[in-house]
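Weekend entry, working from home. Most of the wet-lab plans are on hold until the incubator is repaired, so I used the time to fold the two sequences that have been sitting in the queue since the last round of cloning. Logging both here for the record. First:
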Amino acid sequence: MGGEVGAGVGRELRADCARCAGVCCVAPAFAASADFAIDKPAGRPCPNLRADARCGIHAELRERGFPGCTVFDCFGAGQHLTQGTFAGRDWRADPVTARRMFDTFAVLRQLHELLWYLTEAVRITPPGPLRDDLAATLDETGRLTDGTPDELLAVDVDAHRDRVNRLLSSAGEAARAGRAGPDRRGAMLIGVDLRRVALAGANLRGATLIGADLRGVRLGAADLTGADLRGADLRGTDLGECLFVHQSQLDAARGDHHTLLPPGLRRPPHWSRALTLTPSRPPHRRRPDHRRSR
């Protein structure tokens, strides 16, 4: 096989809302929180969804209390579901079609996410047995996404994800060989000041870094698979060599023009809003004034 990629090549792994039918604005549930201004049950259209399947407040989502919408990415599953799996049918046509579309979307979105990670893993892995396994699993996952609604609903996504994650973990370890840092997989680091913590090459798979202070930190080849970066302060952070960084993670974080990004990722527009670099070194301390009385 030689590590060549088949079924995964050329697939759309970013959302194209113009070719969808607003599925992500209907199928998932969300609760009133810092990410969403209101409660919305699964299967009910968001009140901001217009008749043309576009968001009525798209340009003001953050200001109107919906930052969670700005960081959601279906990895291309929405247009695949609408144009491919359901051949252009619209969920608004009838309730039975709607329910099947929403249930199928839950499966397809997870598979598309795995396609994205597998594609990245193949890209960073040199030719050899591991790359062959990654490429074969990428092909297999691609074939699963091309199934009928019944076939997709029969997929054991959890079992498939577990198998894929083992391969992705191996790919991350191989890519970090010789420059691996601390193992902080799944670590709860909410709001923690990490500016003086050695994290270069760290394993941060699944770490919760909500609101963490990473200003000026050099992360080297850190593995950020699935790390929750909501509100994390990345001003001046060096992410240039980090592994498995997705655009949605950057969109959820804060940063500035000093933040170094991995190739192919863009600086989110909201980063430029009143954000300046704060040095990571300790603040300057005044020398003690010995003239003061003790």
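Second, folded right after the first finished:
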Amino acid sequence: MDPTLKNRTIAALRAQIPVLPRGLRTGAKYVIDHPSDFGLDSIRETAKKAGVSTYTLVRLAERLGFGGYDGMREPFRQALVSAAVVAERPAWVDGLRDGGALGAVQAEAAMNEMAIVQRSLERQNLDQMSRVVDMLMEAPSVYLTAVRASYSLAYFLHYVGRMALPSLQLIPRHMNSAIDELHTAEAGDVMIAITFTPYSRETIEACAFAQSKGMKLIMISDSEIVSPEFSADETLLVSVLSTYHFGCYAGAMALIETLIAMLVARGGDEAQARISSYEELRNKSQVYWSATKKR
């Protein structure tokens, strides 16, 4: 079998998704987001996970030129790799499992976090990361937006990243909307948007508005297809799989810290000087607590 068929199938799905009917669009997004599960599961299981009918999946396969569902799934089966990326379970995890029900919960959460950090970092291509760093360093203005739980990631990226990238602005500010803040943005500016499923309406609208102004868009997300209404210039993918109800952001934070490290390195002496000036300011204003020495 052609070893490139899986990647060509995903590329075809991405290209067609904006014009697909709603049901086919939902099925296509599931295949793009979960290629390993798609290659492993039966058609009924895939339909259940994707929230579509088995007939929809058959129609999707035919739309792509396959003779049937199995024909579309086969290249994914051939390319299937295990999602269990932590090669060896540490002994301390087994110790947690011996601690009863709550210990088992802690062990599962710990293994999940280690796995998604490794998997998220493995997915980052050096060429793409270099393009992203160049886009950010060369842009006149860089806007950064996120809401709700994702806002904590954006806040950290802005708080630390602005020392290497002084053009970085966190929006919205002062109870405005992100679109208000983008009103004066211009073509050539860049926006970074952070959002994970379920995607926030405010962030999606801000992305579409930014692109309508000719801005470049960088997404940090768990899917390359966040919305069929727009396509990001660059999407940095991370895993947010969790052992509990909400997404786990350990992988996203690892990516953001890697990006900051690359921005600091790219910023050279100027970035180091800004970092030093911030540290000097904080020391002078005594922002860090220290114990009073006994006399």
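Plan for Monday: verify the second prediction. The beta strands are 142-145, 168-171, 190-194, 216-221, 234-237.
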